[in-house]
Write a structure and sequence with these properties.
By secondary structure, the chain is an alpha/beta fold. The protein has 23 helices and 21 strands. It starts with a helix and ends with a helix. It binds adenosine-5'-diphosphate (ADP) and magnesium ion (MG).
């Protein structure tokens, strides 16, 4: 995950620059009135070290206090009401921990009873005719407010908006917003939106926006202010991404002199007809490869969408122009699978393909190394050892990596070979939402394969509850009878959680009881040694095992085309994208395949899988439901955490920020900017 840390570093540095600049000659936390050493210490605990940190400690929510209309309010509806205390509060101690206070409130035209628990300590302040605002539930039947909060200020006609912050010891919400106000009164905050865009969009002053966010006056202003700050946040982020992308794109690569006709001829001679998306992807790759820029492209598409053949076309282009290709898979099993595919496709050509795995004997390895240096091998396939081990190539022109292993700048440097920068192609079977792609993959070009090869039957998906176990077993049996194989997935293996769901061993036992007399059942989990795992996978591949009970370690991308069913237990424990990935293990030929999701919970969410097989759509849904958190198997890294923006909602703003950052860098608008921005960009440039 080098790539992420690289981005993270630069992003954090940018923030450091920003906070540094904001600190500079300006206000420090110690300069704030009403903030002593213990307050500063408490702020430190939530990572607020500078005034700027405090200003960007944004409220995560607002309470909008609008006086309720008693006539339209229903029983038990939320109520916000102001008035004056009309009767001296009486207190009743329910027990040592709990008290109940009651008084009458005069709202101007009505008298209401107020009940509030555990606020006996306020009694002395609630003298007759004191103005208060009550927030709570309206018990219409009894003309009573059951209050959850009481405030000593009256609502004016305007709705009052109160910022709500994540709590800080010793600080009320009010205090945080007061401190921010104080800073903003004295300090001029640095605005990183170029003045060109500030003018173009008539953006409000940043100080004003920050004031509105911490002390909002009305909703329209607040919205505009939040948007303005979001825009800046996204702009800075996209500027960095665009910068990185341009930088990678400007690396001089190999300018190949190959006609598209020769590529087309190759495609026409493949054992099957490529899908439109596959052809478009190959075209895009071709354009990249004949241009003088180094390719940095991602091909994303569902499992089984046919990415491998696209990669093979790239290898062919590379071969025609006289260069060597390296293809890397995340596991040995996959490397072997790719090797077999590639060899078969290139059998008619004078192309030498080799593979290096952990099992390759040293003597054999040496031979391969020599052949690579001499240029006797055209294509080498293996795991990531291909780049980490210092293998030398005669003229490495293309590196393909399967499943999201990405290179950092340094690793890329390793790939350089005698001054040549190879083209790079990534393949990912984890389609991700558009927004997310712009940020995670913002520094790459992306090709999408959205359709499955023709003739492929859609995997049929069924949702079953634990009570329908008999059904599930029957459906499994009918596949076994056809001589087909089945994956059974259990979520976790820790015994501690066993009470919660079926552990893999339980599941194994269960399968054994049901089918053990007739069929062979294997078990695969993360605690097995590599060679044990491989032995079991091989048995499954050879149909020596009919049911494979596994945790999610089922190798990504493993292709056992005779497996026509996957049964996933406690499916609610998985994200939709993960389930979709797992489902991709089956349906890998023209047999009808099935996916059974066994779950007693969250069936509504899981229904998305029953309804669609489109990985892009599913990832969008997953994203909307769960956010980017632990989606897509990509750990959320520091650089993806936006303080204000929510990629689920701010897609349009993100697009705008992207366009603007591109324009900004292209038109070299920097030169028109004041020194602060030049400095920021200079820091960017120096970073990599
Ligand atoms: P993935 O995108 O998961 O890497 P693969 O490249 O392994 O998918 O393709 C899955 C299967 O589909 C392979 O057996 C491959 O030969 C086959 N395939 C790929 N493209 C086509 C096509 N256009 N028509 C028919 N079969 C195809
Ligand atoms: Mg693949």
């Amino acid at each position: 995950m080098q790539h992420f840390s690289e981005k993270m570093l630069t992003y954090e540095l940018m923030y450091t620059i920003i906070s540094y600049r904001n600190k500079g000659d300006k206000m420090n936390l110690t300069d704030i009135k009403g903030l002593g050493p213990s307050g500063i210490n408490n702020l430190k605990k939530v990572n607020i070290l500078t005034c700027n940190d405090l200003l960007s400690y944004y409220p995560f929510r607002y309470n909008v206090l609008t006086r309720s209309n008693l006539d339209t309010l229903e029983q038990d509806e939320k109520i916000i009401m102001d008035g004056v205390v009309y009767s001296i509060p009486s207190i009743y101690f329910i027990n040592r921990r709990m008290d109940k206070m009651t008084f009458k409130l005069n709202t101007g035209n009505r008298l209401l009873t107020v009940i509030i628990f555990n606020r006996a300590f306020l009694k002395n302040r609630l003298t007759l005719n004191t103005g208060v605002t009550l927030i709570g539930k309206y018990d219409k039947k009894h003309n009573t407010i059951v209050a959850s909060d009481i405030r000593f200020m009256l609502l004016s006609g305007e709705p009052k908006i109160e910022p709500v912050y994540h709590s800080i010891t010793g600080f009320s919400y009010k205090k945080i917003s007061d401190l921010c106000f104080q800073i903003l009164e004295k300090d001029e905050v640095v605005d990183f939106v170029p003045s060109y865009f500030v003018q173009k969009y008539h953006l409000m002053d940043k100080n004003v926006a920050l004031k509105n966010v911490h002390n909002p006056l009305n909703i329209d202003n607040l919205k505009a202010s939040v948007n303005r700050l979001k825009y800046e946040e996204l702009f800075i982020f996209m500027l960095k991404m665009t910068y990185l992308k341009n930088k990678k794109g400007s690396i001089c690569g190999i300018k190949r002199d190959i006609s598209y006709d020769s590529v087309k001829e190759f495609m026409d001679n493949l054992p099957f007809k490529l899908t439109v998306d596959q052809i478009v992807s190959v075209q895009q790759i071709y354009e990249d490869m004949v241009s003088e820029k180094a390719m940095n492209r991602l091909v994303q598409g569902d499992v089984g969408s046919g990415k491998t053949i696209v990669a093979i076309c790239a290898m062919y282009i590379n071969y025609l122009s006289g260069y060597q290709s390296a293809m890397m898979a995340p596991t040995e099993i996959l490397a072997i699978q790719h090797y077999e595919t590639v060899k078969k496709i290139f059998a008619k050509y004078d192309i030498k393909v080799e593979i290096i795995t952990g099992k390759t004997k040293m003597s054999e390895k040496r031979k391969i190394y020599t052949a690579l240096v001499n240029g006797d091998i055209n294509i080498i396939i293996g795991t990531h050892a291909l780049i980490t081990e210092k293998i030398e190539y005669k003229n490495l022109g293309l590196v393909i990596t399967d499943e999201q292993h990405r290179f950092g700048v340094h690793q890329r440097g390793n790939l350089k070979n005698k001054g040549i920068t190879p083209d790079i192609l990534y393949m990912s079977a984890t389609p991700i939402p558009r927004t997310y792609a712009l940020t995670v993959y913002g520094d790459m070009d992306v090709s999408n394969i959205k359709t499955m090869p023709n003739g492929r039957k859609m995997v049929q998906t069924f949702l079953k509850s634990d009570k329908e176990m008999k059904d599930v077993l029957m459906m499994m049996y009918s596949q076994l009878r056809e001589n087909h194989q089945i994956y059974v997935v259990a979520p976790l293996i820790e015994d501690s959680e066993k009470s919660d769901f079926e552990s893999i061993n339980d599941l194994y036992e269960k399968m054994n009881r049901a089918f053990g007399h007739k069929y062979k059942i294997g078990i695969l989990h993360g605690k097995l040694k590599n060679n044990e795992k491989e032995a079991i996978m091989n048995d499954f591949k050879n149909n020596d095992i009919q049911i494979l009970v596994a945790t999610t370690v089922i190798e990504v991308g493993v292709d056992v085309s005779n497996a026509t069913m996957i049964v996933i237990f406690d499916a609610y424990r998985f994200g939709l994208s993960t389930l979709h990935q797992l489902r991709g293990r089956v349906g890998r030929n023209d047999l009808q395949s099935y996916c059974l999701l066994v779950s007693n919970r969250e069936t509504k969410r899981l229904n998305v899988l029953v309804e669609t097989n489109d990985g892009f759509k599913i990832s969008e849904e997953d994203f909307l439901i769960r956010g980017s958190g632990d989606l897509f198997g990509i750990k959320q890294s520091g650089d993806m955490v936006f303080k204000l923006s929510d990629l689920r909602k701010d897609y349009k703003l993100l697009l705008k920020a992207k366009e603007d950052s591109e324009l900004f860098l292209k038109e070299n608008l920097i030169s028109q900017e004041d020194s602060k921005f030049k400095e920021l960009m200079k820091q960017c440039v120096n970073l990599d």
